[in-house]
Amino acid sequence: MILLGSSVGCSQPLCGLGLALRAAVSLVAVPQHEPPVKALALLSEVWPGQQPSQVPVTPRPEGDGACLRDPIRELIEVPAIGSWSLGALQLRAVMKALLGQMPPSALGVLMPAARSLFQHPPTCAGAWTQLAATGAGFPVPTTKDAAKARFVQELVDSHGDAQKFKNAMKKYCGGKKKRSE
Predict the structure, then answer these.
(1) φ and ψ at 114, to 5 degrees?
(2) From start to end of the chain, where are the E strands?
(3) Model confidence pTM above 0.90
(4) pLDDT for the residue 62
(5) Do 174 and 139 meet the contact criterion of CB atoms below 8 Å apart?
(6) Contact between 101 and 139 (Cβ < 8 Å)
(7) pLDDT at 6
(8) What is the model's pLDDT at position 36?
(9) Which of 30, 44, 48, 116 fits as disulfide partner to 66, beta carbons 3.0 to 4.6 Å?
(10) What does the pLDDT read at residue 123?
């Protein structure tokens, strides 16, 4: 179960939402022939409220989900597995999917799930990106730490431009993959 910060409390709906977000990230993290569209839709959601970033928000009736923005940020900031927050796990799952765990045709539904993390404060999104890019041998054994640092900076800088963001992710994750059966 996701531990929540003391300022959020653990109301039944919020705990349920935390479990749903965690399940959605888990679905994206496993190899699949077809992307889990509904899980990706949940992870791609841009919650209403003040936007500290340039991620576009779909207009909605006033009050529709706006109260969820800060609690959701707290849910994805706290460690979920070891020192990994749910935000970092979500971005890493998308990166692994791009590395071949999902078909190349999934690119269009994966990018919004990665970009949605940038609706949160830049310090959070940057930290999640840095953690998601870590690990010996990730994304390939020859990736140097300097390349990882460049990727993190490029992704943070380009999140407001969907095409630049997509190109940065594809470049870091090795471009378009051919799926082997």
Answers:
(1) -80, -45
(2) 79-81, 84-85
(3) no
(4) 52
(5) yes
(6) no
(7) 35
(8) 94
(9) 48
(10) 87
Rounded Cα–Cα distance for residues 35 and 5 (Å): 31
- Read off φ and ψ for residue 59, nearest 5 degrees: -60, 140
pLDDT given for residue 177 in this prediction: 53
Looking at mean pLDDT, say which of 33-37, 73-77, 117-121 comes out highest.
33-37
- 103 DSSP β-pair partners: none
Residue type, 123: T
Bridge-based pairing of strands 84-85 and 79-81 is antiparallel
Q: Which residues contact 69 (CB under 8 A, 6 or more apart)?
A: 47, 48, 49, 119
With a cut of 80, say whether residue 60 has pLDDT above it: no
Buried b (16+ CB within 10 A) or exposed e, 79-102: ebeeeebbbbbbbbbbbbbbeebb
Of 87, 68, 74, 79, give the one whose Cα is nearest residue 24. Answer: 87
Which position has the higher pLDDT, 95 or 65?
95
Rounded CA gap, 159 and 119, in Å? 9
Say if residues 180 and 99 touch (Cβ distance below 8 Å).
no
The residues that bridge with 84 in the sheet, in sequence order, are: 81
> What's the DSSP call for residue 56?
-
Closest by CA to 162, choosing from 91, 114, 121, is 114
